[in-house]
Write a structure and sequence with these properties.
310 residues; alpha/beta; 11 helices; 40% helix
């Protein structure tokens, strides 16, 4: 086995197949045809004198040799990429950079328009793709470079994942203007009793921004008051307008809707509406990359309302 005879481009194929468990998916990730990807796998097998991957019900499974090699190869490729990219001068006006971020549906509503407007003005040839990644999978997606950064209620405690605090927020209740609590005085803030008497609609997204409303209601023993679960936050305004349902949403979203829709915002009891942190997260392998530094700076400029980073 002579290392000089190994085409290093083949190692990218090894990592991609290991990550996806599929020749087809790996080819798409690398912009290669399926025959080209299969040919690369055949060359890898010949070089290492090992099958590397075997077929299984859930897709291709790595052999013991591959399981040992792939993580090390991936780490070295990331280091090599960082070493090469850090030398590049970044010019947003002419870049054709393709960034991949992860936002939930609510994140798209709140963050994507302003970020897209900035890119169209300052980096008109750049591309931006939102990739749906569950919160618990964000660190792995960052490490594998399936995404470049994410914005959301994220508390990554994984080696190699960095984060900056953008802002702190809290929850509020949203209803039609004709809605009234079943009992008690009508003021700006709902009491715990008034909230317990309401019928609720919540959004249950799978991506990175919000999954904590239902957890909050569970702590308050109000889960049984949920009569409707929607998949997306975008459905909540019309549901509140057309029914007697109350929904709990981030204050930032409620303020945005209040400018465009005839909705009423109610404050929640302080104990019932804990604050949360919205963070920008990325992998340390891109920490010194000029292109990634630039896009993170735009996120801070547009949305950052807190000082300090962790």
């Amino acid at each position: 086995m002579n290392f000089r005879q190994l085409d290093l481009n083949l190692l990218r194929v090894l990592v991609a197949i290991h990550r996806s468990g599929s020749v087809t998916a790996a080819g798409k990730a690398l912009a290669l045809s399926q025959p080209a990807t299969s040919n690369a796998l055949a060359r890898l097998r010949e070089y290492f004198q090992d099958d590397l991957f075997v077929r299984a019900p859930g897709g291709l499974k790595p052999t013991r040799l591959c399981e040992r090699l792939a993580p090390e190869v991936q780490a070295q490729l990331q280091l090599l990429e960082s070493a090469v990219m850090v030398r590049d001068r970044f010019d947003p006006a002419h870049t054709e950079m393709r960034w991949r971020l992860s936002l939930s549906d609510l994140g798209e509503i709140m963050f994507l328009p302003e970020l897209a407007a900035t890119l169209r003005q300052q980096a008109p040839q750049a591309h931006l793709t939102n990739v749906s990644v569950a919160a618990e999978d964000v660190p792995a997606a960052l490490e594998s470079r399936d995404i470049d950064f994410a914005i959301g209620i994220l508390q990554p405690r994984h080696r190699g994942v960095r984060s900056d605090l953008l802002f702190r927020e809290h929850y509020v209740a949203l209803t039609s203007t004709s809605w009234r609590p079943a009992s008690g005085k009508v003021g700006r803030t709902l009491s715990a009793r008034q909230l317990a008497e309401a019928s609720l609609v919540v959004a249950s997204p799978t991506a990175t921004f919000h999954g904590s409303v239902e957890k909050m209601l569970l702590r308050m023993k109000l889960s049984e008051r949920i009569v409707l679960r929607a998949r997306h936050f975008g459905a909540l305004p019309d549901l509140a307008l057309s029914t007697d349902l109350l929904t709990i949403v981030p204050q930032m979203y409620a303020a945005n809707l209040g400018q465009r829709r005839d909705l009423r915002v109610w404050e929640l009891p302080r104990a019932a509406a804990p604050s949360y942190e919205v963070r920008l997260v990325w992998h340390e392998s891109t920490a010194r990359d000029p292109a990634h530094q630039w896009i993170r700076a735009q996120v801070h400029r547009l949305f950052g309302r807190a000082k300090g980073a962790t």
